[in-house]
């Protein structure tokens, strides 16, 4: 209820959260500054120090993995087959249930065994919090039939697993004005139950892991003539940043705090350097053998300089820069360095070497590497959505190898700007 305007300000301090959490003891001491305005000028006075300590708050890092199965499921209709799936919900104080997990639908199976499900203890409340596990028969019209259900906690499900005894499903049935639970012969079994501790981002930082930032910039001709204002590469004399500069700055500003030497590999692709053929991976700083620049400012300067020293060309190929980044990550892994690499690719258009890019990504999926693709301009980015395997199956190479994990995140810059 304190009225701040009536209080005397002793000073203020500001910093990025990353500046605190990257310190070994997660503490940072800042100077308190008070701005004093006089008729002639405004100047700052130092008024003591402020120490900020950061702690990570979490209910539980533990995740339970379960494989569930059912036996003798009943068909809801005389002539229809059973296409079962499970919905696991948590019960809240008001008595309503909130779905937290769902299995896949298994076609025509009265004794189904579903793929493992993962439940974070924090997600469900605690190991003793009641969960409702409902078994439904899938209908294409969306009106799924309830076959039966059980109400158990994670602790109960662990006991069912260790006892190897199934739990009978029940079905709420209206008898007169009352609702009774009809016990069914169908049973739920817990085939596997295990718990794992999930380490957090801050755990890795505390363990000495460093993030290393890398950037690759699209210099293909589809960006437009850099000397004209309608080009995505136009350097505005007023100092206003173009989309490429904004993406470099916004992503780099976040990541640079986690990189101790702040020396970043920076490349361009899809352009013809002076007196040379089109290159799909050239050092942004113009050097023949050294790709690193110092800080975000170094990337910005190298980018501006490159615009005056290369001719925009094409096509748009990602494979070369991904393989270059993967090589750096694999060398780091061989040296047993505690480093994780993030490659930012900024592009304006459709990738020409889609299969080669997939091959490079599948090959890199075992390495300490993530790739953030930022799409600038108004192009159709459907192929980028394919590379970002969030909405479907993992990427597959031309030899049939499936990526061990999804390492790509695609973001259209127009969706996040501002």
Automatic annotation (TrEMBL):
GO terms for biological process: cellular response to calcium ion. One of its GO terms (molecular function) is calcium-dependent phospholipid binding. The keyword Cell inner membrane does not apply. SUPFAM superfamilies: C2 domain (Calcium/lipid-binding domain, CaLB), vWA-like. Residues 46-170 form the C2 domain. GO terms for cellular component: plasma membrane. Pfam families: C2, Copine. It comes from Gossypium aridum. Belongs to the copine family. This is C2 domain-containing protein. Transmembrane segments: none annotated. Gene3D superfamilies: C2 domain. The keyword Aminoacyl-tRNA synthetase does not apply. PROSITE patterns: C2 (PS50004).
């Amino acid at each position: 209820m304190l009225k701040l305007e009536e209080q005397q300000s002793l000073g203020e301090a500001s910093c990025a959260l990353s500046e605190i959490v990257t310190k070994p003891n997660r503490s940072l001491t800042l100077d308190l500054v008070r701005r004093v305005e006089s008729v002639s000028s405004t100047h700052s006075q130092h008024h003591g120090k402020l120490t900020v300590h950061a702690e990570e708050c979490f209910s539980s890092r533990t995740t339970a993995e379960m494989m569930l199965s059912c036996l003798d499921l009943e068909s809801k209709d005389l002539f229809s087959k059973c296409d079962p799936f499970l919905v696991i919900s948590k019960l809240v104080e008001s008595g309503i249930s909130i779905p937290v997990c769902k299995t896949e639908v298994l076609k025509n199976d009265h004794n189904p065994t579903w793929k493992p499900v993962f439940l974070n203890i924090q997600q469900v409340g605690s190991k003793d919090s009641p969960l409702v596990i409902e078994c439904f028969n899938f209908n294409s019209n969306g009106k799924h039939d309830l076959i039966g259900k059980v109400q158990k906690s994670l602790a109960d499900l662990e006991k069912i697993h260790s006892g190897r005894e199934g739990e009978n499903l029940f079905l709420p049935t209206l008898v007169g004005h009352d609702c009774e639970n009809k016990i069914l012969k169908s049973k739920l079994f817990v085939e596997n139950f295990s718990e794992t501790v999930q380490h957090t981002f801050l755990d890795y930082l505390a363990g000495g892991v460093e993030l290393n930032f890398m950037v690759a910039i699209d210099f293909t001709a589809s960006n437009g003539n850099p000397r004209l204002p309608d080009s995505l590469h136009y350097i505005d004399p007023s100092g206003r940043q173009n989309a490429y500069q904004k993406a470099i700055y916004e992503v780099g500003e976040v990541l640079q705090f986690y990189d101790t030497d702040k020396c970043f590999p920076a490349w361009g692709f899809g352009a013809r350097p002076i007196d040379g053929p089109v290159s799909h991976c050239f050092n942004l700083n113009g050097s023949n053998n050294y790709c690193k620049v110092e800080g975000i400012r170094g990337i910005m300067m190298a980018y501006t300089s490159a615009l005056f020293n290369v001719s925009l060309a094409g096509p748009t190929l990602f494979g070369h820069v991904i393989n270059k980044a993967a090589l750096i990550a694999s060398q780091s892994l061989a040296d047993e360095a505690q480093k994780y690499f993030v490659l930012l690719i900024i592009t304006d258009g459709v990738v020409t070497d889609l299969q080669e890019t997939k091959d490079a990504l599948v090959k890199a999926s075992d390495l300490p590497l993530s790739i953030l693709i930022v799409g600038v301009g108004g192009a159709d980015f459907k192929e980028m959505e394919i590379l970002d395997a969030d909405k479907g199956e993992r990427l597959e190479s031309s030899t049939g190898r499936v990526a061990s994990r999804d390492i790509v995140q695609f973001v259209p810059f127009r969706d996040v700007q501002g």
